[in-house]
Amino acid sequence: MSRRVAITGLGGIASTGPDVPALWQSLCEGRSGIGPIANIPTARLSVRTAAEIAGFDPLAHFGTKRLALLDRASQLALVAAREAVRSSRLDPASFGARGGVVVGAVNGQGSIDDSYRSFYGEGAARVHPFTIPRIMPSGMASHLSIEFGLRGPTVAMASACASSNHAIGHAFQMVRAGMLDCAIAGGADASIVVGFMKGWEALRVLSPDTCRPFSADRAGLVIGEGAAMFVLEPWEQALSRGATIHAELKGFGSSADAGDITAPSADGAAQAMRAALDDAELAPEEIGYVNAHGTGTRLNDRTEVAALRAVFAARLPGIAVSSTKSMLGHCMTASGALELLATVLALREGVLPPTAGFNRVDPECDIDCVPNVARVARVRAALSNSLAFGGLNATLAVCAA
Amino acid sequence: MSQALPSPSEPDDPRVGEILDIVAKEGSVDRALLTPDASIESLGIASLDMVQAIFEIEARFDVEIPVAANDGGAEFATVGDLLRHVLAAIDRQAAEDQASRSPPGGPPA
Questions:
Q1: pTM, full prediction
Q2: Is A204's CB within 8 Å of B54's CB?
Q3: Fold that domain A251-400 belongs to in CATH
Q4: Which ipTM score applies to this complex?
């Protein structure tokens, strides 16, 4: 069995907005959520810049008993999934074992940090009793399954910063293959905590001020937090119930560099893009927009552009390639989900989100990166790239509905 | 890069030797190839090995070496750039330590 897959539910929350309309408006305005860190102590941080969600009040969304079980990442996941399910007008529970959840795996970073700080730093005799369920990397998948009554295949997938794309790709394959009639897929990440930030500082890839993908003066990435969730269902089912179809999820391709644990490879990235095009039965010339991994590090951006050149060759100058990390920051395991959200909305609305913070052309990244200002353009098909540490690459192909 | 910083070719600065030892070890390169003009990229030192080398240098000299993003986004183009940056950081740290031990306005009241 091979069925077309419709995206009928969208949900999102990140630094620039608490829901899909607000996020989309910020992307259209080229407005960045990157700024001075305010949610955690910064005294011992060297880099004090991130794309945080300001003013998120968990008690506006969850009761106190439920909240005690939820790491911030799971909170964001549930908020985004509620919006996605609401917008889909589906009752996921009615699908029982034909409904499933696939999300990017993420440790409950805030819960780990709190626990270890109180035990090692403050000499506490014991830690919070729900530390383990809050930390477990599949906790978010379980909470989504519990909240929406989905009883079919439910799993969290790990591929570092490509986790969401692998998760959405896996959900897509199961819906396409007839294994699921309703899937909630996406990612959520809330890793702006002191211990994790110190780890990124030590890798020396964080920008001290902002994220400028593809710009000659780019100085590194900025960590962000957020979530994006999607409801996927078979195309015919969506049509027959009169659902709003935001876009068609068309293909998924993934690859491994089998090279370096942090440095990316153009061959591996190109292979993932080609695999996604093949899977979607799209020719490179049909692609009008690519939402790049575009972290803003020297190495990622030039490698990704080399991969794009390998795939699109002489057509590359005619393809818009932007990095929404320039506005949302690098939302780690959730980045692929937030970037698919941007891609779906770009196709639906006919507006390509820009690469913010762009100053100067780098000869090694000489692409049309939609610098600083969104562009009105009707695009039929697009790719969204995630090129993770460890050389794990995943690309999603989407078409306008 | 042409700042008025300590010259890496200063033969009597023992720190230079120690820094180069660390870079040679972590980068798995012949110590003799680490001349001031040698390009770090062409020496084939992987970025992660350079991160590790800087971490070891920070530990050895008890100093924080800030990220030095230049126009190309590369931290250090040459061995000389690395040495200048590292020595400046060590000197700055030493000056700060000195200042905090003896405030310029005399002993606190």
A1: 0.92
A2: yes
A3: Peroxisomal Thiolase; Chain A, domain 1 (3.40.47)
A4: 0.73
